[in-house]
Design goal:
The chain is an alpha+beta fold. It has one domain (2-297). The protein has helices spanning 5-11, 153-161, 186-197, 217-220, 232-242, 292-297, and strands spanning 2-4, 28-33, 36-41, 45-48, 56-63, 69-74, 79-81, 85-89, 96-103, 112-118, 121-128, 140-143, 166-169, 211-213, 253-255, 261-265, 268-272. A 5-stranded antiparallel sheet has the order 1-7-6-10-11. Strands 4-5-9-8 form a 4-stranded antiparallel sheet, covered by helices on one side. α2 (153-161) links the parallel β12 (140-143) and β13 (166-169). α3 (186-197) runs parallel beside α5. The radius of gyration is 19 Å and the shape is globular. The two termini are 35 Å apart.
Length: 298
Amino acid sequence: MEISRRRLLQLGLLSAGTTALAGGSMRGHAESDGGFSVIRRSSPSVVQGATDESRTQFSIVHRADDSFDFYVRNSSRESVWIPDKVETHSLPGQGTVVSKAYFSDLRLNETFFFAIERDGVLKDEREFRMLDTKAERIRFAICSCMDDGRHSPEIWQDLVEHKPDFILFVGDCTYCDYGPGDDMGPSRLWRRFSEARATLEIYFSRKLIPIFATWDDHDFGQNDSGREYPWVTESQVNFMRFFAMEPSHCAAIERGPGVSSAFILGRQQFVLMDDRSFRIAGSSRDATRIGDRSRKTG
C-alpha cells in the first residue's frame, strides 16, 4: 500500500535523517573450510523473489533476536509503501529466522529501495526494480552449485554488473550434506540454508535482482537422494521459506508439485522442475525423476 512519506513519519514508522548501512556490510565472523576463508555475515541477507509489473516479495534471513520493520520507498523519498503482509518463520533451537515481506501497487520503470529498520533506525537498504513480464527481450542468468565453503564473491559481483532481468537458481543453492555431523534432518537443513544465506555475495548485493528457484540433491538434503529421503515434506517447507515464490504477489508464476514452478516471461515459458521429491532411484522402466503429476502438468 502506497502512502506519503509525511504520513508515515506521523505514524512513527519511518525515521528521519538516518543513513543506511551498505547492503554489502562485512560484519560477521570468519570460518575455515578446506583452505578457504569463509565469511559468515551477521547483517540481514535479502532475496527479491518472484516479481511482476506491480507486485514483489522479499525473503530476509536475520538473527532471531532482531526485530525489524520493512518498507519500500521511491528514489525521491516522497512515496513509501508498507507491506501487504509480513510473515516470520522459525525453527526451534535455531539462531535465525526468515521474514517474508510482500508489496503491491509498485510501478515499472522506476527505481525503488527496500528498507530494513530496527527501533526507528535504518539498518539496511537495497535497490530494486519491477519486472516487465511482457518485455520483447529479456536477459537472465542461470546459477547452480553454490558451495558456500568455496565462495568467490567476485563471481556474484560480475553477475550483478551484467544486469540480468532475473536469475534462475536451478539446483544446489546450498550444500546441506556438507560439514560436520551426521544428522540430515530439519535442523541441519535450516542451519545450512542460514549459513549459505550468511555467506554468498548475491544475498548482500546493493542491487537486488528477482530470483526464481528450484533444487537438486544437495539443497534437497542429501547427495543423490530422492523420495526415500526421510524428510521430503520438511525439506520442501524449508526450501520455500528461504525463497519467495508466492503466486499471490507475482501474476506470472504458477506453483507445481513439490517445489516446482512455471512462469512466462517475455516470449518464453520457464519450467523449474522438482527432480528430487518424486525421484525413484534406478534405471528400470518404472523409475521416475519428476513423478506422474509433474509429467502430466509439465
